[in-house]
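Re: beginner question about structure tokens

> Can someone show what the tokenized structure looks like for a real chain? I only ever see the sequence side.

Sure, here's an example I had lying around. Input first:
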Amino acid sequence: MADVMWNNTTYEVPLIADKLVLEEAPAGGYGYQLLKRAMDCIGAGIGLLLLSPLFAVMAVLIKLESAGPVLFSQTRIGKDGVEFRCWKFRSMFQDAEQRKQELMQQNEMAGGVTFKMKHDPRVTRVGRFIRKASIDELPQLWNVFNGDMSLVGPRPPVPQEVALYTAHERQRLAVKPGITCIWQVSGRSDIPFNEQVLLDIEYIRSQSLWLDISLLLRTIPAVLLARGSY
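And the corresponding structure tokens:
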């Protein structure tokens, strides 16, 4: 068994030959899925409308600082391994993807599957601000409205990361990816990748409308405090 701590509760997660095994299908039946989708559509739609002035300001600031598009799209892996285009405000210089390979040795994310640097030289000044405030991810509300993502769920990985997944890590793909999740409100990038996986799978095993609402509410102080955000 592996112990996972969240919300002052320790969860015991079964491990077999170093591979985490779900003992039951993802929680939540057809009714929950309908309500979750309704909440996603309403929440994302309202969010896109209310945040449109902020989007306009961010577009101007991003264009003033560096050349390139305002939005950055990237292939991500969704439910059951299906690829989709994930949208963000561009927080890096245009050659960021090309320079990533040069910086791989400086990866600060424990586990080595995902890439994170606290002082990534590819990030612009505006980019540092919008990342710290989590503004860069707001365009993903369109992904939620479009049905590729949900408001709550495991964060969507890139194909290169999924290619390195073990069997138990691939279980993160059992549900739609989300904008926020358990580890997003519990420390974000400060949490090692293997613990992120355990928390994601705990969410999949216990998901409910109340848990989704609770995580959305907890996202507000997590964003304001910016703990683990870089």
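Each token stands for a local structural state, so reading them left to right follows the chain. Residues 1-21 have pLDDT under 50 and may be disordered.
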